[in-house]
Amino acid sequence: MVKERVTVIDIARAAGVSKSTVSLVLQGSSLVNEATRAKVNAAIRDLGYVYNRSAANLRQSTSKIIGIVVNDLTNSFFAELAVGVDAVVQSAGFVQFLANTGEKIERQREVVASMREHGVSGLIVSPARGTEAVDLAPLVESGIPVVLVVRDIAGAAVSSLTSDNHAGAMAAVRHLIERGHQRIAFLGGFPDTAVFEARMRGYRDALTEAGIPVSDALIIGSAPSRAGGVTAVEQAMMLADRPTAALCFNDAVAFGVCDGLRARRLEPGADFAVIGFDDVIEAKTAVPALTTVSVDPQGMGQRAAELLLKQIKAGKAEPEAIVGSVRLVVRQSCGAAVERKREVLA
Amino acid sequence: MVKERVTVIDIARAAGVSKSTVSLVLQGSSLVNEATRAKVNAAIRDLGYVYNRSAANLRQSTSKIIGIVVNDLTNSFFAELAVGVDAVVQSAGFVQFLANTGEKIERQREVVASMREHGVSGLIVSPARGTEAVDLAPLVESGIPVVLVVRDIAGAAVSSLTSDNHAGAMAAVRHLIERGHQRIAFLGGFPDTAVFEARMRGYRDALTEAGIPVSDALIIGSAPSRAGGVTAVEQAMMLADRPTAALCFNDAVAFGVCDGLRARRLEPGADFAVIGFDDVIEAKTAVPALTTVSVDPQGMGQRAAELLLKQIKAGKAEPEAIVGSVRLVVRQSCGAAVERKREVLA
DNA sequence: TGACGAAATTGGAACGTTCCAATTATGAAG
DNA sequence: CTTCATAATTGGAACGTTCCAATTTCGTCA
Predict the structure, then answer these.
(1) Nearest nucleotide, CA B24 to C1'
(2) What is the pLDDT of residues B201-255, one digit of tens each?
């Protein structure tokens, strides 16, 4: 029952040619005569041959594999990112190793090592919290192209693809201020990450730009999840001087904030303005639809993959740091409905 | 700059032993003397050797790779499933190829072929809609263990791991009936899938068991997504004889139903009972917390991975079909709060 | 007809590992 | 000091492909 492997040699025998010719056919070389090509392909079909890539990339030191490691696949943002990567990687005839680190550096080290052993020809990584440049050093020394996504790492000599978190946060807060809000909170996220840092700076800058004093009490960290959002908004509403609006660290937190608001009989959008960050698929269909800073996770995954493939093709490319632009998409959760009403009155 | 590969031979030279001994060390064989093992390991560290798995599994025809292909990674359910698989697969020293088919059979065919070429030693697949037994035939003939998850395929001679959709749906509807509901809808999901079929049958059976007539108007299909849930509930509320409760195809639909309810100023849980299916992470933290039939996606992924690894280890195992049990977890969205009140009065 | 260049094909070495059979070192027993 | 069993080590073949250099085939032109 266990049939043994069919190899190029079997094909060669069946088609009456040499294994070299078969190899040429497999690679789509133009050197081979149309008639023989047909013969070989017929033999391949008949014998049920399956190409052995391990053998191939033992000889030619280049595999058709890329690796992608994410810090939290449970978060829709990263799932969508992975989908974006997958799409372009597949069309390019590559396949992807995907690993989830769950923010654990040790696990990250392991999976990166494992991927190296498997001969990936490039790596897209959204690094776990606390990853440092030295952690990536062996990888970059080996000359494998690496693209960092979402989170950049200072001093790591690799390409990165991040989004303009500072500008996005400023745009969001400006919008809130235009709507008349003065007590604006920044909710959720781990304060020790670069992304948090950037978004929070944008938040502060927009506030001071408008002459509104920044109060540290209104900056409340939490896990960057829906549950984290609930606890963050609870904490915010215990303040003596409650906020009337919030920019949230990401969409997951924003959804949690909406949940927390409803738990206190407050209607997001009407009684309290909330803005998210990311523009996850669900943001559009939620009720109220979430106003959010769109970073287009799927598109980001695609661009990261394209950048990586470009570098793989080019051999060793010098690192480039791309920061993608970002735009505020205004929906209902920030009180746009109220605004519309106001417009009618005006 | 481009340093060439360090191989076992280099290590052997550096450590003053033969390549065979180095190989033995790499495999953790007990045949090698403690002192030489130390020497070899030192050399490995010093030279920055990285193991070449392609070469290894060219020789020994067994790789440490498994493949997982899912139909929609954008859906949290499958993302969590993948995380579960990843966890056990990683601990077993394997790595996973993950591919997303987006319900496209053609893509599925491609990725499965690609994974075969890369020599995966097993495959977990949540098949795209419309996959038939013949599509998997070449795969099973080759003797590669396959575990189907979530969706079973009639006639495919492979193992499967599904959940007891019928019993889960019955339990949910019984619960709704006990709460006094009579007009109960079944919302969302593609009607041409086995999962839909099973859940819907459970819904009907619970209804007829209680002597409540089944009305086809109350069974409304849609995409199994949040957006689909919104449209399904809209359609349901246009009915002359409106439902007062709904069992939803999955949690995503249930969230959408909640959104749609709110859009009509109806409070899920209080004004309309909704029950989901899956028990995605968010179900617990949402407001109102979602009553749902728990199938524990992450646990399911783990079990699938364990089953697959078992079969890989055993060589060729005969297929087994496991249907995981399922339980109703009662939270707020079905009006449990009301019930509690009633208990107090009694 | 012979010569020549282009087109097509080919054998063999190489990639980095594992496995087998064979060899050598070590130590215990007589 | 042999003899033997056991522990350690080793060389070489093999895995399935690609690549190179070499060879054969073919059509064209003088």
Answers:
(1) C18
(2) 999 999 999 999 999 999 999 999 999 999 999 999 999 999 999 999 999 999 9
Residue B1 lies in a domain: no
Helices assigned H by DSSP within chain B: 8-15, 19-26, 34-47, 53-59, 76-91, 105-117, 133-141, 165-178, 194-209, 226-237, 251-263, 281-285, 297-313, 336-345
Is residue A108 located within the same domain as residue A228? no
CB-nearest partner of A74 from B79, B98, B99: B79
Q: Is A3 domain-assigned?
A: no
CB contact under 8 A, B118 and A110: no
Residue at token pair 């605004």: A339
Which nucleotide comes closest to B40 if you measure CA to C1'? D9
Query: Identity (one letter) of the amino acid at B56?
Result: A
The domain that contains B286 carries what CATH number?
A: 3.40.50.2300
Amino acid, res. B111: V
Handedness of CA A118, A120, A126, A129 (dihedral sign): positive
pLDDT of residue B3: 57
Which residue of B lies nearest to A90 if distances are taken between CA atoms? B111
Nucleic strand C within 7 A of Cβ A1: no
> Which 3 state secondary structure label does DSSP give B96?
strand
The residue to which tokens 């990725």 are assigned: B111
As given in the structure block, the two tokens for residue A91 are 């069309």
Residues of chain B positioned with their CB less than 8 A from the CB of A86? 73, 98-100
The answer as to whether B311 is a domain residue is yes
Contact B112, B139 (CB under 8 A): yes
Residues 6+ apart with CB under 8 A from A255: A226, A229, A276, A282, A286, A290, B282
Chain B partners of A65 at a C-beta cutoff of 8 Å? 118
Q: Are B292 and B276 in contact (CB under 8 A)?
A: yes
- Looking at residue A202, its amino acid is G
CA distances from A15 to A4, A38, A48, A125, B334 (A): 19, 9, 14, 45, 67
Distance CA A331, CA B96 (A): 39
Residues in chain A with pLDDT values less than 50: 1-2, 337-346
In eight-state DSSP terms, residue A260 is H
Domain boundaries, position B190 = 165-295+329-345
Q: Is residue A60 part of a domain?
A: no
Structure tokens at A284: 């559009």
Q: What is the per-residue DSSP string for B238-270?
A: TSSS--SEEEESSHHHHHHHHHHHHHTT--BTT
pLDDT per residue as tens digits for the range B187-199: 999 998 899 999 9
Q: Torsions phi, psi of B338, nearest 5?
A: -60, -45
